[in-house]
Every structure is written in structure tokens, then in C-alpha cells.
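[Solved] Which block belongs to which protein?

Original post:
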Amino acid sequence: MLDLLIRGADVVDGTGAPRRRADVGVRDGRIVAVGDVSDDATNVIDADGLVVTPGFVDIHTHYDAQVLWDPAVTPSPLHGVTTVVGGNCGFTIAPVEPSETDYLTRMLARVEGMPLESLVAGVSYDWRSFGEYLDRVDGATAVNAGFLVGHSAIRRCVMGDDAVGKPASQEQIEAMQRLLAESITAGGLGFSSSWAPTHNDADGNPVPSRAATKDELLALCEVTGRHEGTTLEFIPAVGGFEQEHLELMADMSRTANRPLNWNVLVPTAQRADHAWKMLEAGDYAASHGGRVLALTLPDTMKTYLSFKSGFVLDALPGWAKTMALPPDEKMRALSDPAERKRLLEGSQSPEAGMLRGLANWTAMEVSQTFAPENEGLAGRTVGDIARERGQEPFDVLCDIVVADELRTVLCPPVRGNDPETWQLRRDIWRDPRAVVGASDAGAHLDMLSTFNYSTAMLRAVREHDLMPLEEAVALLTDRQARLYGVRERGRIADGWHADLVVLDPETVAPGPISWRNDLPAGAGRLYGEAEGIARVIVNGTEIVRDGELTGATPGTVLRSGRDTETVTAT
């Protein structure tokens, strides 16, 4: 007797092999039959005309906090995701000292765009060690969830306030090594860190990991490599790499003898040479005994910006301190002509680099407003409004933002929906120096809707005729699972865990994006459901049925060694 039988589906097994019509039988959370199955089953799904695939594996999320109040880590499962990896970019909420909970909470709110009031209401910090945090999460998730160990959290545990802006002593590095080893032994999937200039804490200072020297990073990578089933994730820079970044990533990977993936590559045909240049980090690492991959987003990136959070804007030259001000002070600063002039000059300076494209104030779209005096501006560009008013675009933008008490939702021009960029994306997806992902799900809740990357990719593959569905599914499932060494997940095969998606290949797509006030303390976020996803199954249990969550929590916490095997750099 089977627990579940999916009857008459086209099976796309995650390996890239051609689809075949077959039944899939499941018992005790495992796939026990793929073919012509005649056994009776407690639950039968008629999948005639539909495709069954492995569950999608999202290796770059920030669900560390959300999983505590939302076991389904929505909306990822609605888009077919059955396994998530958190703890990226060096940001985790464990290990933690009681004296550091306030700092970590405020840092997360700032750097990852999570409402502070939601974190205060939803994160209890009834743990100290990484293992205690994993125990807190285990047994209460709809999806499988694994977590890297974050560098900034480790640094604060060991160094306290000195973690911000100061190098670590040899004794402190050794203490961090011991804490990382303890955290990985308890189940951490590896080590994550960041040198990204966009990563600043609630006071506008660089997050702790940005103060780490190369020696400190390599010492922690060495510890990572001692443990089975671990990996590395790192953000060295934003926009481009210097030689020191190439050397650092190669040395980190070689020292740990583990693959390292960096975030994020968002290619456009207009800068195709730049995209291929960034991928050369993989060649450099390979020639020096390492393995480095780019994490690449498989869709256009529509970004929503907010002066309230200030994220990304604070990376513009001279903007960090202003964006870190309390709301009232920030509004006064944005009303000051001298401060406006200073901010504008910084945003247009050569030092802004690639961010100057983001700071194209004339082309910026006003997506949503709140003040009565801003009524009717949504959907218009700042440049259009400025011409109508006879004012400078940046002055108009500041007027709108101040009137809205910083809540204005702004959208830079969306790039990369041209045929040439879609062809470039396809070529990068196929490149062994890249891996698809970068959803950032659980973070930047007022800024990004890339949590729908999986259904967005499948829609793009269909509408732009980029590649066979079989290849696309492999790039969303088996490729990530094999990179992270996840045992017996990512494929449809006898004996493997029954993480499955039943979908309509002709209609699968992301649904509309809207604002939803469903976070703790009544805060809101961008949210979007999916179309064409009939069932999502985790460990043999349905967690999504016809676009609705079932409420089941069959997921498991993935622990290094037990649930992952070692993938080496060479």
C-alpha cells in the first residue's frame, strides 16, 4: 500500500533526461516506484497532462527569522520550492550572546530589509548556540531548511562592539574558529561572509564581517573544510572584482577545499562583456586549486527602493550616514537644500560606479505614494513630474518622499527584457561557472519580489523558447542539490526523498505582486503567488494543493554530514 500515487504524469526527473510518461509511488516519505505502478494508495493524484518534477532547491534565502513565525516560509513553496538554505551573506541569528540580540536584530532590519517591529515581535532568542537554534526550528517547517553559519554573528559573539570596524586579534580568531566548529558540528551547512559595501548595520557602519582580514577569513574557511558536507558563500564586492577579490575567493575555496558561490550576477546584453568578465573568477579559482561559482538571477530584477530603509541607497558615496538617521531627522535632512545638493553630487560622482545607473533620478518611477498631495503620481517617472512642475528631478523626488514620510515606493527602470539578454541569461545558466538562484527570499521585503525566481524562469523558458523544460528543471533542482551535496534530493529516483512538484508546463508562471500586511506587529511585505502549480510535496506530504497551503509541516532541518555529503573544490 502506497501513501501517495501520482498517476499518469510526464516525469521530468531533474537529470536533464527526456520526459517520460510514468506513475510515481511514494511510501514513508520516499519514492519507491517510477513507472507503471498498480499498487493501491491512500492518496492518488491524477496528473494526466501535467508534469512532475523534483522540488526546487533555493540556496540563497534569508528565512532565518521568518521561519520562526511562518513555518511555510511563504511564498517560496507556492513557487515549487521544497528546500531552502538560509544564513547567507554572513547574517544569522545564531550563535548569539544575550547582550548582542539587540544589535543583531537592528542589523538584520537594516541590511536585509526586514521590518524591525516584526523582528522584535517574532524572534524570541530563546537559544544561544547554533545547535539550539536548529533544534528550535526542527520539526516545525513545511519545507526542508538548512542554514549556513554567519560570520557577522560569530564576530559579535567573540568581539562584542569591537566586531564593528576593528581587526581581530589572533586569540579572537581562534575563538571564532572554535565557535564556527561547534556550530558546524551541530549541523551548520558551512560558512558565509560578506565584504559588500552595501552591507551596513543600523548605525550606518560596515557590518562586522567587513572588518575581517584575509587571514581571518582563511582561518574560518580552514575550519569549514574539516567538516563533512560543508560549503562556502561570500559577497566580495558589488559591481566588479579587483585582483584582491579574485585571489581571496580562490584562496578561500582552496583552503576549505569546498566550492564557493558569490552573489549576485545580473547580466544584460548591453554589458555582456562585463558578465563574462565576472565569470572569469571561476577560471582564476580553478587555476589556483579552487572552485568559484556565480549565483545568477534567472529573470529581470525589478527593484523597489525606499528612503525609509535606505538599503542600496546607503551605498552611494556620502549617503550612508543620512540613510541611517532616525525617520524624523532623515526627513529634515532631505528637506535641506544643502544636504540635497550634497547627496545629488555623491550619487552622480565617478565613485558611485555602477550605482549611478540606479541613481538615474529622472527615469525613476514612482510606484506607490501615501500622502494626499502625492495623489495621482503613481506610475509616473520623476522626470515627467519634474518637467510638469518646472523643478529639478532630485528636488521633486525629495519633496515626494518627505511628503510620504519616507514611505514612497520607487522603482528604477527595469532592464534586460530584450531577446539578446534572454539569450545571454540562457548561456550563463548553462555555464559551469554559474548556478541559478539569488532569490533573497525572506529579505528586502519592501524591495524585491525575486522569491518567484523558479516560476519566473520556467515562464521565460517557455515564452522565449530558451531551452527544453527538462534542462531548465535540472538547473533548478539537481544542480543546486549536487553543489551543496544534499543527499538524495533534487531528482526523481527510487529511494530518494519524495520532494516533488506537479505543474502545468503551459501555464506555470509567477502571479501578480501585491502588498500584504501579514508580518508580526502588522508590518507588510511584497507578496506573490504562482500560477500552474498543482501540487507541492515535501517528504511525501502535500504542502501546497491547487495554490493553497495545506498547513502540513513535513520538512526537516538539513544538518551537515547527516543530510549533506562533501563536495570538494577539485
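(Second protein starts here: sequence line, then its C-alpha cells.)
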Amino acid sequence: MNQILSQDEVDALLKGLDKGEIETEQKGIESDLDYQLYDWNTQGRNLKGDMPLLGMINERFAGTLKNSLSASLRRLVEVDARNLELIKFEEFQRALPIPTSLHLFKMEPLKGTGMLVLESRLVFNLLEAYLGGSGTDSTKVEGRDFTAIEKKIIGKIVSIVLENMTQAWAETFPLKATFVRSETNALAVNVVHPTEFLVSVKMEVEFNKPIGHIIVCIPYASIQPIREKLSGGFQEEDEDVDRGWMERLQKELKSVPVMMSVDLGRTHLSVREFLNMKEGDILVLENDPRKDLTAKVEGQPKFAGIAGKYGNRKVFKVERILNPSSTVGT
């Protein structure tokens, strides 16, 4: 049986520890150990830097969704992918008002459940637009559930969003977003543990002015199996496609109109001199008339030459090319 220390012995022991009279064994991390400090609160915060293709997917998503909503509403709709961030699920839940148009979806073949959130303000503005209104009226939307007719129109909007999400991912990964169910209370939804992270993209929708946001959330753990794909650049099997795309782009660029200008000369005037100018005044330019003039293309110096006249038209004769290595061949 172990001997039990008296209170006086315990006090003496603690006193000795405080004064350093009693040596204690300390085991720390060995200096030659290979390790890295990890901050769980900032896990993957720089998503665009860590997974650049994820940002490209969301830009495509916003672009195709803009076209689909515009066609469905028969009016111009702007959709802008604003924020791509990592957020804890519990923080996300607390930030959503009640009621919220929240929709769960599967992301086959990835595991887990994603969330699509339509802000209440956006929902009512879209409903008004579908029914022939302006879709830009300010309406207080908290405090009531959606009616059967409203839910039917919301279902149509959700289908459009998920179809465009699938389309946006297709070029990078064959993700298929499939609707599961709808909720109005975010606190009743538990797609991940409250402390786990969600990848959240917020898109602003506009009818001439902002009318609300669409938020798409995917569990961070769900995209881990394809993190390397989202972090990388072009894949080897796509090289031929990319080369063909580059050739087409170069061909199209050659037909793009550009502005070319020739500076005959410049000078500096004070405001007083400018206000006192009258017909017949002569301005002394800084350019030497014996030297070549500079021709600029889109503001960049490209050619040197001399000005002249051909028939009734002023002309510029190219004497030499400036920075020939940066000039596209004709």
C-alpha cells in the first residue's frame, strides 16, 4: 500500500518545487525532430493560392449562372463571384437568419453533403421578378415561411444553380450536384461537425443594383481527395487541347483593332498661358524636328519614323522598330 503524504509534507514539497530546490525531469521536443507548427484556426484560409483551379471553377460558375438566370427571367442578370473562403460550420450557421432558403445536395462522386443558400432578400426579389415585377424593391422578409407557390419557384431557381454548378466543374472534375432536400432553419442542418470547415463561395446577384447573395458551401473534407488536382495547373493529357486553344487565341488576337498614335510634339503651359491663348499664337514644341517621331500602339512606343504627306493625307513612314523582340510579327 502506497504511503500517503501528510499535509505538511505536501506543503513542503510544493515549496521546494517553487524555489527550485527539487529537480524535476523535463522532456521536450528534440531539436533534430522534423516538425511544423500548424494553426487550425487558419487552415487553408488562402484558398485561391492553395487551390487556384477552385477559383477558376467559381468564376465559370458565376458566368454560366448569369446566362441561365438571364434567360430564365428574360432580363439581364449580373452574377459576381465575390468571396471564396474557409469558414467553420458553427460560424456559418449563426450568421444565417430565419427563415433561410437552404438546400442540401450531394456531390457525387465526392463524399459528403453540400449546402446552397439563397438569401431571403434575394429570394423575394427573384420571386417578384418571375411574377413580372422589378425585382429590386426592398422587402422585410424575416418572420414568415415561404408559401407553396414561392417554394415552387425557389425549386426552379435551385435546379438552375445546381445544373450550372455541375457544368462549371465539368472541365476540371466530373462532379454532379444532386438536390437532396430543403430547409428553412440552418440550426436544424448538420452536414459536418460544428467545428469543421466549409469551403464557401458567395456570389452577388444584381438587377442594375445588388439584390442579394447566393452562397454555395462544400465540406472542406469532401474536396481533400481532389486537392492535388485543384492545386495543380494543366494536366499532361490536356496539352494538345491547350495548344490548339492557344493557336486559336493567337489567330483571333491578330484581328483585334488597336489604337496607333504619333506624337508630333509636346510642350508645357501654365494655366494663365492656356487661358490667354488666341488664334495665331505659336507653340514651341519640345521635339527636335530633325529627329524621328515616335509612334505608339495602345500607348506603348513601337515605331520610330518621319511624318509626311501623300496626296491629301498625312502619313507616317516607319524607319525602325522599337523593342523588336516585343513586337508581334505581321
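Accepted answer:
You had them paired correctly. Confirming on the second one: DSSP finds nine helices and ten strands in the chain.
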